[in-house]
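Researcher: Please predict.
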Amino acid sequence: MAHVDLTIVWAGIIGFAVFAYVVMDGFDLGIGILFPIFSVGEERDQAMNSVAPVWDGNETWLVLGGGGLFAAFPLAYAIILPATYPLMIAMLLGLVFRGVAFEFRWRDPRHRPFWDIAFSLGSVTAAFAQGVTLGAILQGIEVRGDAYAGGWLDWLSPFSLVTGVAVVFGYALLGATWLIWKTELRCQQRARHLALPVGVATLIALAAISAATPFLQYDYWHRWFALPGVLLTAQVPLLVVICAGTFLWSLRRGAERLPFFMALALFLLGFVGLGISMFPYVVPRAVTIWDAAAPAQSQSFMLVGSAIIIPVILAYTGWAYWVFRGKAGTEGYH
C-alpha cells in the first residue's frame, strides 16, 4: 500500500463515520429535542417507537469516529479532547441520560413523566455540546509544542454558542422530518407543523455561521472567496438555496419522504462547507492530518479491520432500516 496515502484514506473513513453519526443519531436526538411539544400518550409513544429499533445502533458510528480519531490521528485526539473536556463530559452525560430514559420510559410507567424530561434534556444537552465542540474547533485551538496550551473555557465564545444552537435546530429538523415520514395521524401532523419553524431557524443559523466563518481566519476567507476557487465554492450556497426551496415546497405539497431527504442534503452541504474551510487541517492553522497521523504500519493494520467491520455495520444498519421500514405504531417495543 506504499502508493496509497493512508492518511487521506483514514481521514475519509473518520469523516464518513462522523457524518453517518450526525445523520442517523441526529434525528434520534431531534425527536428528544421536540419531545416536550408532543402530547402525552399516543403522540409521544409513536415518536419513540419510530426510532426504537434503530437508535442504539445509530450510535455505533460515534464509537467508530471517536475510536478512529484516537487510533489513526492520536495527536489530534490528544489536542482536541483536552480543549473540549467540559463539552465531551456534557455530551456523554446527555447520551447516557437519553439512553437510560429511553429504556426506563417503558419499564417504569409510574415515573414516565420524569423519564420523558430526562430523555428531552439528555438530547438537548448532547446536541448542544456537539455543536459547541464544532464551533470550538472551527474558531481555533491554541497549540504549543504538539499539546493543548489553552484554558478550561477557551471553547466558550459567541461563535461556538451559535453553532451549538444551530446543531440543536438542525437535529430538531431531522427529527421533525423523520416523524413526517415514519408516523401518521396526530403525531405526523404535529411534526409537519413543527418542521417549518425549525427548518427556517436552521437555515437562519446556517446562514449566520456561514457568514461568520470566513472572518475567523484568513485561510477560511481565502478558500471561499479567492479566484478561481470561488467559482466552485459558490456552488455550495447555491445548492443550499435549491435544497431549502425544495424543502419548503415539499412541506407545502404534503410530501412525506422528501422533507427528510432535503434536511439530509442540507447537512451534507454543511459538511462539505466544513471540509472546504478546514482541509487538510484537523486542528485549524495548527495540525494537519499528516502531522497528526499514526505510523503507516498502524494505519495499514487498522485498515484491515475497518474493511471488515464497516461493511458489516452498513449491512446490519441497512437490514434494520429495511425490516422496520413501515409506519410506527403506539405499542411498546419491549
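Model: The first strand starts at residue 281 and ends at 283.
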